[in-house]
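Exercise: predict the fold of this chain.
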Amino acid sequence: MTEKPKENGHGRLAIPYARVSTQEQAQHGYSIRQQLERIREWCRAEGLEILEEVVDEGVSGTHLNRGGMDRIRDLVPQHPAVVVVAQDRDRFAREPAYLYLLKKEFEQHGAGLKALNDRGGDGSPEGELTDGILDQLAKFEHAKIAERTRRGLDRKVTEGRLIRGPRAPYGFAYSEDGEALVADEEKMGVVRGIFRAVGGEGETLGGLVKTLTAADVPSPTGGNWHRPTLRYLILNELYWPRVPAELEGLLPDDALAGLDPAGVYGLWTWNKRRQERWRERTEDGGYRNRYKIVPRPREEWSAVAVDLSEAGLAELRELVQAARERISDNRRRPASTVANRLWELSGGIARCAECGSVLSPTAHPRRSGNGHRYYYVCRQRYSNGPRTCPSTRNSPAAPLEHAVWRAVHRILCEPDLVLRQYDNYVESKRRRMRGDPGREARDLTERLGKLERRRSGYLDLAADGDMGREELRAKLAEVDGLREAARNALREATDRQEMIGKLKRDRKVLLGRFSAMRGVDLRTLEPEQRRRIMQALRLRVEVDREGAVRISGMFDADITGLLPMASEAPSGDEPYRRSFSEEIPPPHKAIVTLDTTRTAACSRSQTTR
């Protein structure tokens, strides 16, 4: 780190950098303003001119995938004499290895990093050691806060105490002290009505959605009611009244012992799923958070008992049980069986472009009484009324299915188009990678070697009696932490390098898949075969209120096993000959573009009414 940039050749330009981790801090802006004010004061005192102030709001410091940091990494090569300034070292990154990578990257352009809490500004080994210790302490503090929070929550669960969330469950409100749930009579009345309708009257979830919407009853989120919302409420164990004996094995022993044996309780559960998060680049150069939900085993759930004596559900115990049993095995009837017709775009393939809802098949009797007319309609509007979706379009089934298959057929029969865009995708992926993964891997490997030698030196000093046991333990802990951080960063750099290599190898596999389709006349496929292929391609067909259609899908998916015949694929060097030479008619002609966030091709066409 650099203490005084004007004295060591970094010049007179500075880039202040501020970051906060939570959206709440970002919205209030207190921390951002405070950080920037301190940096401006330091720049004035040092006689530095501010080139540009860069901010990352609501972004974690555990990774470098940040829009603001990307901006700095673009500016540094253009202004080699610049110094990047932050209030604290952990504003740049919480992981010491990432700090090391930034420092090395900026040094290659003659730029430097400066944190106002630096202690090793003189560049001496002692100063760098002090800064390294500060980095490890910041990481340790972050881990200890998380550990203390987790222990406190676990203790509350063991004692049967409530963990207050940002919003009480539907039908309840928090008590004044926030330590209990009490029934909200107005909303709990809706809950009781739901159980009476489904468990006692045999009402369907779809019918109940229409009833609640027509009565202007607000949903738990204040918006529209949906069948998944009702299903969640009915199957939620919080509304299932049970006596303590029925909760054995579901609650900690201490919590179970504190319940009234004659009471009736619901079970409020959480920690039922684990969320894996990561950040990825978007087509416009920004970032978006992605996540995947992974269910946890029942034994890992957390739960507390909630008194239902004032909720009025104890008297409805049989209706609650009946409602749960009635919908527990609900399976939606395949849409493709409507009117004994196979609907090629059913099952979530066709969607409304206005609201994102699935387009449901429907059959209208002809006025003559002879047969039916078949349409795809917006399920949201059909089920919940016109207020929920502005699209009034009924898309005739046969023309829409024909137009979609013609567009898909054209893409499958023009592999050069997909391959060319695949190459563009790989190149854009490589360009958007910040830094050089190969160079970073070499730098980190060198750093790991230095850390290994430092660790070995400490052991030698201890063996010679020049270092005590406690000092050795502290030194080894510090070096081991740095080694682990460097290994993680090296693994990430290697993964990025391997990802580009894998994309290039996958191109050959993709070419082989297209070659396997040679000689197969895709025009002769039956509707069921077409539907299976469209599902394998993860096709998504969006129809807007004007009838314009947008088709997207994973057109590099392996569908050779779904083809009606096996064909021997010639070598990949032979030119591909299209089995279908007709051009798509002008109303359906499409320009295919590749989604850079996924290997997906998109096509636009226009269907007729």
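Check your answer against the key: Residues 1-10, 563-609 have pLDDT under 50 and may be disordered.
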